[in-house]
Amino acid sequence: MKKLILLLTLLISLGYGAYFQSGHAKAGHLLLTQNTPILEKQAKEIALGKVKGEVVMVKLEEDDGRQYYEVIIKSSGSMYEVEIDAKTGQVLEVEQEGSHDGDDDHYDD
Question: Are residues 50 and 67 in the same domain?
Answer without folding.
Answer: yes
